[in-house]
Design goal:
Number of helices: 6
Distance between the termini: 22 Å
Structural class: alpha+beta
Largest sheet: 9 strands, mixed
Strand content: 25-35%
Radius of gyration: 19 Å
Shape: globular
Number of strands: 9
Length: about 230
Amino acid sequence: MNVKRRAFPLSIKAVPDAEGRFSGHVSVFGTPDSYREVVAPGAFAASLAATKAAGRTVPVCWQHRMDEPIGAWTRLEEDEKGLFGEGTLWLDVAPYARIAQRGMTAGCISGLSIGYFVTADSFNDVERIRTLTGIELVEASIVTDPAHSEARIDVVKAKLAAGEGITDREFESTLREKGFSRSEAADIAAHGFKAWTRREAGQPQADSSAVARLIEAAGSYRLPSI
């Protein structure tokens, strides 16, 4: 399953100094995002504890490029607002670290965004809000555009939250994000989703709320063990 991404604009508290040190909130609690998801206090606790116990640190990446680390988070802890971090950029060896430092100092790069896996969550059927209670933090990036996301599942979620329909290809991509293989996703999209969404003439797309429920069901489905 691909890493999910969540962005927080204007979250940098202190821009990098001459040594590349900076700080800011990489996640904020309690506020629903455009995908109707909320991060709950304590969501990062287990992940941070496991990382510390393993003697590891979380990388600072550039634009979510896992192969482009530009520093390390020297401190990550939850406070009353969210997940606060202090990091250091590798200005001497990472070219993009210097770009990040210059952009953050100039005020044109002001976003922090996390890459993560959801390990526990709950869903409010009345308010249609998903609360993330367990998050495995993989990386936290400096990003030029905090609203940008390369995760296809987030694009689909945004469309559904806005009441828009999605295409067959987007539904198939979402199943892939949920852990289905390429062939499984293609079969489900071809034989199930297409027939369902086009069961009536002139209805190329199903109701967005119904599609959202279908995706939720797909995400919770697991093949039986043999």
